[in-house]
Every structure is written in structure tokens, then in C-alpha cells.
Amino acid sequence: MCENACMQINWDDMRTILALVRAGSLAGAAEILAVSYTTVARRVQRAEEMLGQPLFERRPEGYSPTTEARNLAAAAERMEAVGQDALRQIAGNDRDMTGPFVLTAPQLLIDTHLAPFLKTFCDDYPQIDLTVRATNTILDLTRREADVAIRISSLPGDNLVGLRLADQQTACFGHPDLISAAEADPSARLDWVIYSGYDAPPKIALAKYPNYRIRARFDEMTSLIAAARAGMGVVRMPVYLGQSSPDFVALPGVPAQDYAPIWVLSHPDLQRSSKIAVFKSSLKGFFRDRQTDFTRLLP
Fold first, then answer.
1. Distance (Å, rounded) from C-alpha 133 to C-alpha 79?
2. Of 12, 45, 154, 243, which has the maximum CB count within 10 A?
3. What residues contact residue 98 under an 8 Å CB cut-off, 6+ apart?
4. What is the CATH number for 82?
5. What residues contact residue 104 under an 8 Å CB cut-off, 6+ apart?
6. Which residues does the UniProt record annotate as the domain HTH lysR-type (predicted)?
7. What is the pTM of this model?
8. What share of the chain is helix, strand, coil (3-state, %, to 5)?
9. Are residues 169 and 279 in the same domain?
10. Rounded distance, CA 292 to CA 263, Å?
């Protein structure tokens, strides 16, 4: 069925079926494809009418693919992989410092360090069309969701070409008033905001400040930082974040601890690309000059 069906259905409809199988909802597929959810629905209906059978069960929780839809999605995935392989080979042979270039990096790292670097890079190479996807989500470099990824990870991925930019440490920081009170009386109750899934503050901090209260738990770092900045509690975060803002003071007597390093990654097929080689080399020098930002806890 799949071979004949693939010959009848155009590529837009095939990749829409693949996106809907991956996402499980019209909205999710629309986000993957950068189209409206009505476009997704229309393409699926067109494919179903062409084949004369349903491809998805419409359920309240989302779209459940039939066996036929899964087979079509698998075929589309193979076609996608062949196309992406070809595109990576072309991009890998690119010797010009021009054209599109997609970077993905954590938003907070962009806020504190990468923005000035990116300005300089764009000033030096004005014909490069830079797109930055600021997210902690792991984008797929094989599918060319990005050309280069900056990730904070102990295991950045064996199938990628990686360059270790900086080692990191974490420490405990809080609003100056909160830290002053803790330093004056380490036995007094100390308020904390912590990451969701953790039961208590770091043991290394409790050794000096054993009396604590969890004011709130948050599921991402931006919210944790905002809560700590408002004086809601002490928070553990990477040294570069805590020391990049005058709103925070390190909790005295609590040493910094090792944390996942920062990497810049690309697909092996893109090793010969001039844009990527220059970007990674420049980024390495930028981080080398700022290594202490990520590992040294200032007094």
C-alpha cells in the first residue's frame, strides 16, 4: 500500500502526515511545519480522500495514527533523511561566508554572554543571514533544525562534532538582604526556591544553614531567577548567572560545585563549511577569554 500511496501523495502532504504522527496534535504538527493548524487539517483530509481511507483517529486527546499513517510516516522519514543528507553534503562544501546560518543556544547564555559575541560575528560577516533559536530544547542537527548548537551537557552526543567551550560550576545565590540575614545568623530559617523534582536545598548548603523552608518550586531557570531576584529565597544556579547580576550575592561558606560544561556542536557532514568553522573557532576564543566567568566564585 505504502509504495503506491507515496506515488500518489505529494511531499507536502507526506511530511504533514509525518509531523502529525510525531506531534500527535494539529497544533504540534503546525508548529513543526511552521504553518497553520487548518493547513495541517486540510492536507491530512486531502491525503485521506486520495487514499479513500482514514489515516488518523480523531480523539479528544489528539490524533491517533492508523497503521497506514505510520507506514506513510516511516516512508516520509526515509525520504526526509535522504533529502537532509544531500542538503548537509551541499552545506558542508560551502566555502562562502554568506547565506543562512541557524544557531540554537540557551536563552540565559545569550542574555549574559552570547549576545555581544553574535553582534561582533554579524558585524564581521554581514552577508551571513543569522537565525538564533533560543531554547533549551535539544534540536535535531541531523534533520537540520539548526546548523550549530550550543548546549550545556555532560553527554552532548556521540554522533556530533563537539568542541568543549567552558567548564562550569554552580553556587547558591540570593537577594543581598536575604544573604546578609543568613550570614548574621546561620541557624535561623533560610528560605529557598528550588527546581521542580528536588526535595531539599543542596546538602553542601544545609551543612552550614540547616534550618530551611522551601517557598516554591519552579520548572525552569528563568522563573527561579526571577523569584530569587524578588527575594523569595536562595537558589542554586550556574556561577555565570549568579555573578552576572548585581541583584545576587553568593551564600557565604558554601563552596561552588562542578556542573555540566558548555559545548558547541555540529553535524559531521558540516565540518568543511567555512561558516561553521569560523563561527566555532571564534566562539572558542571568546569563551577562552571568559573561562573564569563560569568557574570562579568571586569573594
1. 25
2. 243
3. 125, 127, 128
4. 1.10.10.10
5. 132, 133, 134, 135, 139, 145, 146, 148, 149, 150
6. 9-66
7. 0.70
8. 45, 25, 30
9. yes
10. 16
CATH assignment of the domain containing 124: 3.40.190.290
Residues, the chain, total?
299
Task: Mark whether 33 and 111 lie in a shared domain.
Answer: no
Query: b/e for 71-87, b at 16 or more Cβ within 10 A?
Result: bbbebbbeebeeebeee
Q: Which of 42, 67, 92 is the last residue of a domain?
A: 92
Q: How far apart are the first and last CA of the chain?
A: 69
Residue 165, by phi and psi: left (phi above 0), alpha (psi -120 to 50) or beta?
alpha
**Among the three residues 66, 92, 118, which one is the final residue of a domain in this structure?**
92
Q: Which residue has the cell 547558591?
A: 172
Residue 24's closest CA among 62, 69, 57? 62
Q: Residues 4-34: pLDDT tens digits?
A: 555 567 888 888 999 999 998 988 888 888 8
Cα distance between residue 281 and residue 158, in whole Å: 20
* Cβ partners under 8 Å of residue 161, min gap 6: 265, 266, 267, 268, 270, 271
Q: What is the pLDDT of residues 220-253, one digit of tens each?
A: 999 999 999 999 999 999 999 999 989 999 999 9
Same domain, 46 and 146: no
Q: Is 25 in contact with 16 (CB distance < 8 Å)?
A: no
- Predicted confidence at residue 126, as pLDDT, reads 93
Q: Are residues 140 and 276 in the same domain?
A: yes
Contact 182, 190 (CB under 8 A): yes
Cell of 102: 541557524
Domain that holds residue 117: 97-299
CB count within 10 Å of CB 242 equals 25
| CA–CA distance, 218 with 235 (Å, rounded to integer) | 11
Does one domain contain both 119 and 220? yes
In this structure, the answer to whether residues 130 and 87 fall within a common structural domain is no
